[in-house]
Amino acid sequence: MRKVKCLIGRKMVFALALTMAFGSVKAQETKETLTLTLEQAIEIALSENPTIKVANEEITLKKVAKKEAYAGLLPEVSLGGTYERAIKKMSMSMNGQSFEVGTDNTASGGLQVGLPIFAPALYKAINMTKTDVELAVEKARSSELDMVNQVAKAYYILLLSQDSHDVLQKSYEQSEANFNVVNAKFGQGVVSEYDKIRAEVQMRNLLPSVVSARNAVDLAKLQLKVLMGVEPEQDIAIVGSLKDYELFVFGQQLLKDQLILDNNSELRQLDLNTELLDRALKVQNTNFMPTLTAGFNYLYRAMENNLSLAHYDWKPYSTLSLTLSIPLFKATNFTKVKQTKIQKHQLMLGRINTERQLQMLVTSYQNNMNASAEQVASNKESVLLAEKGCEISRKLYEVGKGTILELNDSEVALTQTKLTYHQAIYDYLTAQADLDKVLGKERNIK
Question: How far apart are CA 269 and CA 379, in angstroms?
Fold first, then answer.
């Protein structure tokens, strides 16, 4: 009976394991492919990428630091206690006689309150934290602009990889069809063995390019998934092809926006850093100003000659004080001010150089876009001509008036022209993405 129960138990465990395994496989099989537009890919990246999350947390951190600066205006309250043991008591002389004053042990403890009444360094530091928060916000915006740029270019390179793979795959299929035709004609004795060899070589030469293009698609997908912050196991698919952006390229060329750097994040950060140095200079200047602090103490004190604390006679007393501190001379105050002024001048020179470099980048990207747009228009016509030439050479070969070399050359020309056409659109889109990043243009993600 015990063996029967054990056998039944094992069968139940085995059945449960099979059910769980089947459920896991079924869940994997039913995992849907994530189909994305460019805007959707950017939206996911801005919400899931760890870099963006870190930048947003930095803003929260600066806001907490701002609250900490304001907390300096509030009173400080503490409980404290002291114990003193007299090693040698104070001596006093009167009428030629000397005697000791005080007790062996002195203990005190109680409440201590401090409140700044006039603290110029604290006020300037509060203003400094406001700029620090603005700088953190701008750095977060810079991270978002950089992420949008990276995702857009990763999306475009995936489109390019897919389009290149499609072109090469169709070219391979066409060369395979050509080989089948030539091989059939060779079997009938219509064409020479040379034609058959050339057709087969053409077909086999294309296969490694197709495999390489397929690997490029997988790598581009993985790169996009990493930027989006999704799991590598999640399959994704993107909408459309580079050809869909053809009208966008021509339309953008008609729109000539004013290319100004007012929204450039790098320049904004330099301006905010300059403002921080200005505020730091004001904080350092407060080292030459007086400070006024109020204090309140409520203490209990006992003075005894024994160590029995429980039997001490504790007497309360309280004090209210005002402490004024007027700085007269501290050499480091002068050197710190001079250092900050030098740093400010260095930052100003750096900003001038950065702005010149950014202007150069804007001109470079704009020139690349113009050249790519012209190349797209030219390659579009080239594709139509190459398709027509390929059709003519195919018909000539079929009727025996063309050679296999002419047919192969026309196929290669068509493939190369299509690849160049897609490459030109990709070059335009990546230059546009880089230009948008430099100009600080933000995408309106809905």
Answer: 42
